Amino acid sequence: LSPPSAHLSLKFIALGRGTQNYTCPSTNSSTAPTATGAVATLYDVSCIAATPKNHGHQFLHALPGLTRSIPQEVLAFYAVLLSQSAIIGEHYFSAPQPSSTSIAAAAAMPVFDLRPATFGKQGGRYESNWVKAKKVESVNAPRGGDGDVPWLKMVGVEGSGIKEIYRVHTAGGTSPATCAAHEGEFGVEYAAEYWFYG
């Protein structure tokens, strides 16, 4: 993935834990599931990345694989137990609005809402951090054979405080190859690092 724009700085690093969502019209083995978005809780891991001598980065990059098998409710409980600020926000997809003339509103788009945890004075002014984004780059995850969703670079099309987002070090989330065992909506567990620049 290309680097962040030169005028931006790193604001937050989060561990996202949730589901990549899909739908199948029937249990047809010749039909592939259709992606419908994702939902995830975002946990603040910025301080882990700031650990000296690169040990923090090694641990940070291991977190998605470690947390993919832990139930989301357990992670949320530990986050509350350790500190309310551990949960930094939510990731979801906006509802499509076909009648809208705005391209950003016409299609379901990824939203990262960090307002509850980050609203406040930052850099001398008050700022709320949220963004509706669009994907601009995608590369296969290095461990793609394990069913990991691609790494992405996204740019904001609406929002405040966040301009570019990276989804990296993904674990899980890839749909099954066919709808043979699925009908209707379903989710596939995943975890990933999200790097927010603004």
TrEMBL record:
**What top-level branch of life does the organism fall under?**
Eukaryota
Q: What is this protein called?
A: Malate dehydrogenase
Species, as recorded? Aspergillus violaceofuscus (strain CBS 115571)
